[in-house]
Design a protein that fits this description.
It contains 5 helices and 32 strands. By secondary structure, the chain is mainly β. The protein is elongated and about 110 Å long.
Length: 526
């Protein structure tokens, strides 16, 4: 079947209300199993008198250029945290079984043409250097993919999207691709700026995109359907994930989208009728769904605010038990540029081994961050194998007035545990981690904050008052600076009646252990 996409011709749209098609039930497919392919050539396209006209073709075969890219708009689920080197570090945002799991309508469903909206692009007007896309291809033959951009929002009330003014477009030619039911492809259309074909994102920050999958005929200026099913996979923006995955530290991709989409499937003929504008909110995660596509830009984002440096310290207890872990760091309140995460298969050894592994993981991630390799730095402050404790310091650049939080996950799970401040029990982390918030006091004048001394076990704090015991005199019960009979009499009276104040060792009970504790210090003079 040969059908022309005449973007400016109203005759291709039936204004009559067509019966809405009942789509097949959603199914899950692992996009990680897709075959990675690259276009053989690419050309810019425009619409002239209703016909798609391709410009000069650029030989894309063998292209290895992949410049640093940042997220322009994302419904693909890509990890943008380390720019061009990004891979899914963790990403099972919707608990579907695998980080690569995505939605689609099952084998045999055909939708060779669709239009969807893109809202709140990261950098309006920035040049697109990379487009990420995944699709099914159930036959063997030439495959061309057309992508066009419009400033018009994609909503049903705006009518036939083929009549939208598309200000820019590209067509990617893959040549013959082998396919059959079960064949899945993915591609990163990259290096567009270097090739001189980079279209800009919508200058208004919102609009829509059109994608057609088939075989382009440059003579007739038409995209022709192939006689087998094809469809885009389905995903959505991270801001529309199920909580807590729509918040820190998970948000990296940017942009949102509406719940309406145009799908050419009733029938699949490269035309649109009024019955082919669908609601895409299925109550799944993410919700609503969008076609699985992302646009990367070559322009690094401008920090949304003046940046300041924040330093935090974290106490790790060990020894390392070999359990895998994950970690995430995000600005708090979220909204600034800081977002980092990683995973580790687990280490064994002393607590020093564990702390070193975490420090190395954070610094390795930060070194790849194309936005600012120096915005995040971790170091080990101290390590004491005898007490199984280590202190790790993290320094991060955040928006003025903000701070940052550390999240961890125990095992091969997403890092959803917000590391609390000591003495609150910490997150389980090979085996535990807490934040140490300095109190600003150093009563024993050892150069360390008193909270550090107590948290790491360097100082005792039997009465749990936050002051190292060596800075106090437990036998000076009345606090007058002297140890004498007055202290003994006061304590003895409290002890005899079982008063809670006589719990000298702060274990929650008043018994002989408390009396012995007081007597020992009384006899020693403090």
């Amino acid at each position: 079947m040969n059908t022309r996409v005449m973007v400016a011709i109203a005759l291709l749209y039936s204004a009559d209300t067509a019966p809405a098609a009942v789509k097949p039930p959603l199914q899950v497919i692992d996009a990680a199993a897709a075959t990675q392919v690259a276009p053989l050539r690419v050309a810019a396209i425009s619409v002239v008198d209703g016909t798609i006209v391709a410009g000069d073709w650029w030989d894309f075969a063998g292209n290895t250029h992949r410049a640093p890219v940042w997220c322009g708009w994302d419904a693909y689920g890509r990890d943008w945290g380390v720019g061009a080197t990004a891979n899914a570090i963790y990403g099972n945002y919707c608990s579907m079984g695998s980080p690569g799991d995505r939605h689609f309508y099952g084998w045999g469903y055909n939708c060779p043409l669709f239009v969807d909206d893109m809202v709140n692009v990261a950098q309006p007007g920035a040049l697109i250097d990379e487009i990420n896309f995944s699709w099914t291809w159930e036959g063997t033959g030439n495959c061309d993919i057309l992508v066009m951009l419009s400033d018009v929002p994609n909503v049903c009330v705006n009518g036939d999207p083929l009549l939208f003014p598309y200000y820019a477009g590209l067509i990617f030619s893959f040549g013959p691709l082998p396919g059959a039911p079960g064949t899945l492809y993915t591609s990163n259309f990259t290096g567009l700026v270097a090739a001189g074909f980079a279209p800009p994102l919508q200058s208004s920050g919102s609009g829509s995109y059109l994608v057609g999958i088939g075989e382009f005929n440059p003579v007739t200026g038409s995209l022709q359907m192939q006689p087998w099913p094809t469809q885009s996979l389905l995903w959505g923006s991270k801001s529309m994930m199920t909580p807590p995955f729509n918040a820190a530290p998970y948000i990296e991709g940017v942009g949102t989208h509406d719940h309406q989409t145009w799908d050419d499937d009733n029938p699949a003929d490269l035309h649109f009728n009024s019955g082919e504008c669908y609601q895409a909110n299925f109550g799944v995660c993410p919700d609503p769904l969008n076609h699985m596509i992302a646009f990367g830009v070559a322009l690094p984002p401008t920090p949304p605010c003046p940046l300041v440096t924040v330093t935090k310290n974290f106490l790790i207890t060990g020894p390392a038990n070999g359990t895998p872990w994950t970690w995430g760091i995000a600005e708090s309140p979220f909204g600034g540029p800081l977002s980092a995460h990683g995973s580790n298969p687990g280490v064994t050894g002393t607590v020093c081994t564990l702390a070193t592994a975490l420090v190395n993981d954070i610094n390795a991630y930060a070194a790849q961050d194309l936005f600012s390799p120096t915005a995040l730095l971790a170091s080990m402050v101290s390590c004491t194998p005898s007490s199984n404790t280590a202190v790790v310091q993290i320094i991060a650049s955040v928006c003025a007035g903000s701070s940052f939080d550390l999240y961890t996950g125990n095992g091969n799970v997403d890092p959803t545990c917000l590391v609390p401040a000591w003495p609150t029990p910490g997150c389980i982390f090979n085996p535990e981690i807490v934040e140490i918030v300095p109190g600003g006091q150093d009563c024993n004048e050892n150069g360390e904050d008193d909270v550090f001394d107590i948290a790491t076990g360097a100082s005792a704090d039997v009465n749990q008052d936050g002051v190292p015991d060596e800075c106090q005199c437990p036998a000076d019960w009345n606090g007058d600076g002297f140890v004498n009979g007055l202290d003994y009499n006061i304590y003895a009276e409290l002890f005899e009646v079982g008063d809670a104040a006589a719990d000298a060792n702060a274990d929650g009970f008043v018994n002989a252990l408390d009396y012995d504790y007081f007597a020992e210090h009384f006899e020693s003079g403090c």
